[in-house]
Amino acid sequence: MNQATVEFRHVSKAYGPQGAVVDLSLLVPAGDICVLVGPSGCGKTTSLKMVNRLVEPTSGQVLIDDQDVMQSDVTTLRRRIGYVIQQIGLFPHQTIADNIATVPRLLGWPRERTRQRVDELLDLIGLDAGRVRNRYPAQLSGGERQRVGVARAMAAEPPVMLMDEPFGAVDPIVRERLQNEFLRLHRTLGTTVLFVTHDIDEAIKMGTRVAVMQQGGHLAQYAPPTELLLQPANDFVARFVGVDRGLKRLSLLRVADVALEPGLTARVGEPTGGVRQRAAAAGADYVLLLDGDGRPQGWARAAQLPADGALSAAAVDASSPLVTLETTLRDALSMLLASAVQTAVVTDGRGQYGGVVTLDTIGTAFRSTPAESPEPTGVA
Questions:
Q1: Cα three-residue angle 251-255-257, rounded to 5 degrees
Q2: Has residue 165 been placed in a domain?
C-alpha cells in the first residue's frame, strides 16, 4: 500500500481571504482517514490546502513522512497528492479515460500501463469500463462523475489524498452510496486521507480520527470517533457533536460488525409443500424468496403458500430494506423505522443474499458498545 504520515506542527495561517488557522498541531498516521470538521470559517479547507501548498502557512510546518512540504518542488508535490473537491472539476472536453489518466500522463507512464490503470480504477469504483471510458463527463450522472473524480485522484497511487466536501453536491441517497463505496475502496487501497466536511455525522462515519475545529482556527479536539462521542473535550465539542451523540455511536458500527441471522429462505421454483414444512418446523410466518442467482425477491407468507406446486415470485407479500455489509447500523435502523418492519435483508456486492439484521440485533450492538473510551489521542 502507498501511504504516508501527515503532520501539522504548530501551523498558523494569518487571517485573510483564505481564513485563519492558529497553532494547529496533529499527526495523521499512515493509512488513516482524518476528517476535519467544524462550522464555516473555522479553517478546515485552509488546513487541507496547506498540505499541497494551494495555501502556504505563515508559520509552522506541514510534513509528509517528516519532509516539510515547503521544501518540496510544488509541481512534484502536487502530483504525489490526490485532490477531490465538491465541484469534481473534470475536464469537460476530455473522455472519462483521459480525465482519469491526467496525472499518469504527466508522469510519463507508458500508454499500456495507463490504460490498465484506468480500467482497474473504473472497476474499483463500480463503473463498467467498456460503457464509460470513451464517454464525456456530461454523459454521466452527478454520482458517476464524483466517482470518476475519486478515480482520477487515485490514478497515480498517491500516498496522500485530500478531499474537500467531496460528496456535498449530490443528493442524500447518492451521498450515502458514495460514502460506502469510498470506505470500501479505502480498505482495499489504504491511502492516507484528509477529508473536510461540515457534517458531524459524515465525519463520524468516515473518519478513523476526527479533528473538530472552532471559529478562529483553533483545534478543539482530535480523537477517534468513539472518544469524541463519549468524552467531548469541552462544551463547544459537546454542542457540535449534538445531544444525540449516544445514537451517533451506531454510525461507528456496520452491518459487518454484527452477527447476521440466517433467516428462512426458499428459491423460486422450489416445491411449496416442502417450503411450508420448513416454515412450520422453524416457527416462521414468512419465508424470504430468492431468485436463481440468490438475489432477494421479497417475503412470502408461509400460511398462504399452496400445499403443492412450485414457488413463484408472485407469492411475494412484503419487502424489507436492503442493506450491505458496509451499511452503518444507524442507517440500517433508520431504514427499518421508516419501513415499519423489524428485519433488513443483507446483500453482498453482487446483490446476493447474505443474511438478515433485526431491530433486536441493532439494540444488542448498541448496548454492548463500550461505555468508556480509549486513552485520549489529542485535545486542544
A1: 90
A2: yes
- First vs last C-alpha separation in the chain: 32
CATH code, domain carrying 139: 3.40.50.300
Q: Which of 194, 229, 250 is the last residue of a domain?
A: 250
Kindly state the cell numbers that stand for 47. Answer: 488546513
- What is the C-alpha separation between 224 and 350, in angstroms, rounded? 32
- Domain count of the fold of the chain: 2
DSSP 313: G
Res 8: pLDDT: 96
Profile the chain (380 residues) by mean pLDDT over runs of 10 residues: 88 74 94 94 92 94 95 91 81 92 90 92 86 90 86 88 84 80 84 93 92 92 91 91 78 87 91 91 91 91 88 85 88 86 87 91 76 37
User: Quick one: 180 and 291 in the same domain?
Assistant: no
User: Are 246 and 270 part of one and the same domain?
Assistant: no
Rounded to 10 deg, the angle between the 111-124 and 142-154 helix axes is 130
- The reply to whether 232 and 272 lie within a common domain is no
DSSP characters over 323-347: EETTSBHHHHHHHHHHHT-SEEEEE
| Burial label, 96 (beta-carbon count in 10 A; 0-12, 13-18, 19+) | buried
Does an H or E element contain 99, and which? helix 96-100
Range of the domain at 221: 6-250
Based on the domain organization, do 111 and 199 belong to the same domain?
A: yes
Query: Given the DSSP bridges, would you call strands 59-64 and 33-37 parallel, antiparallel or unpaired?
Result: unpaired
Q: In whole angstroms, give the CA distance from residue 167 to residue 186.
A: 16
Distance from C-alpha of 304 to C-alpha of 312, rounded to nearest angstrom? 12
Q: What is the DSSP letter of 288?
A: E
- In the block, cell 469541552 appears at 234
Domain membership flag for residue 373: no
pTM of the model: 0.72
Nearest to 373 by CA among 171, 212, 229: 229
Q: For residue 254, give the DSSP letter.
A: B
CA distances from 70 to 20, 78, 136 (A): 19, 12, 36
pLDDT for the residue 377: 36
242 in the same domain as 337: no
Q: Does residue 205 share a domain with residue 111? A: yes
- Residue 306 and residue 280 share a domain: yes
Q: How far is the C-alpha of 200 from the C-alpha of 248, rounded, in Å?
A: 9
